[in-house]
Each structure stands twice: as structure tokens, then as C-alpha cells.
Design goal:
Blueprint: E1 3-6, H1 12-21, E2 26-29, E3 40-43, H2 48-57, H3 60-69, E4 74-77, H4 79-84, E5 85-88, E6 99-104, E7 114-121, E8 125-133, E9 137-141, E10 146-151, E11 154-160, E12 163-166, H5 177-189
Parallel strand pairs: 1-2, 1-3, 3-4, 4-12, 5-6
Antiparallel strand pairs: 6-9, 7-8, 10-11, 11-12
The site of glutamine (GLN) has 11 residues, from helix 4.
Amino acid sequence: MNIGVLALQGAVAEHIRMLEKAGARAIPVKRAEEISALDGLVIPGGESTTIGRLMKRYAIDEAVRELSARGKPIFGTCAGLIVLAKRIAGQDETYLGLMDITVERNAFGRQRESFETDLPVAGVADRFRAIFIRAPYIREVGEDVDVLSKFQDKIVAVRQGHLLATAFHPELTDDERVHAYFLQMVKESA
Ligand SMILES: NC(=O)CC[C@H](N)C(=O)O
């Protein structure tokens, strides 16, 4: 399996470490030409405006849309989730526009910039340590989107077919189960 982690900005090394812990080899990818050979792609957390604009500047957005159109799994965390979304509340600019979700950025307010909590994640774990850092949440999902986890009443993990996204950062824990779930999606799509 050829797994790539988009390495424009953000928590790249952490995802590579977790994918390796879950039994796969993963490589950082920076250029549009590297995308089409992948069986799966992770888009890390960081700053969505930075990642999204760099993707457009280097035509990586088109390459990722083609990868998605071939059914290859893509997993976005935090800023990666925002980059995947079709709709971003309060702004007209979107990036990949692949997932039928509406996201709200920096949605937990200033008092709760960063926090951790244990959450059930459907198909993944009864309890998963969820680390939120200036995190978005998902306000609305289309009918093809499965909600995998909620924190209080807010949706924080979703799957739409071959697309997976979490508002929290599984790559910052020692628990590889979300990454193992993603690798299973990659195996099933092969
Ligand atoms: N940890 C993160 O990825 C934060 C996301 C960031 N707040 C954004 O809107 O892009």
C-alpha cells in the first residue's frame, strides 16, 4: 500500500508515525505528481487557509480530486477536515469541496481552545482519547455522510464512503485505532 501524508504544513511526522504503528509505510507528499500513485492520502491538521491555498497554488487540489474520483480513501484531521468540506460557515472560500458537510471553524471558543476528552467513535473504539486544538466541528451533514462521533451535541467525526474526517487529532495520541480503521478502508478500496 502506498500511503501519503500531505506535507505542505502541519502535523505530518505525527501521522507518519501513527500509520507506521498501525502497520503501513507512509511517505510525505508535496507535489501534485506524487498524488496519483497513492492508495490513500492523509491531510493533516495545521492551518486550513495555509494548506488549502498552497494546494491550489501547486495544483495539488486537482490531483487530490482525481484521486478521490478513483475511490481512493482520504483522511483529514482538523484543518484537513476543513479542507475536505464542501461548505465552511462564514466564508465563501472552500478548498477540495469533496465532503458533503458544513464545518464551523474554531468552533469551541476561546476558553476551550485546546482540550481532551474520551469519546466513542463508531466502528473504531468505545473510548478514544480525542485531542482538540482550535478545532472545528461539523454543523450539518448530507444524507450520504455517517456520523461516527459527537462531543456533546456537536459532530466531530464523519465518514462518507471513502472519505474520513475527524475534528480531533488521533495522531497526537499513542492509540493507532483511527489510523488502523483508515488503513482498513484503503485495503477494502484496493
Ligand atoms: N489544529 C488544527 O488543525 C486547527 C485548525 C485551524 N483552526 C483552522 O481553521 O485551520
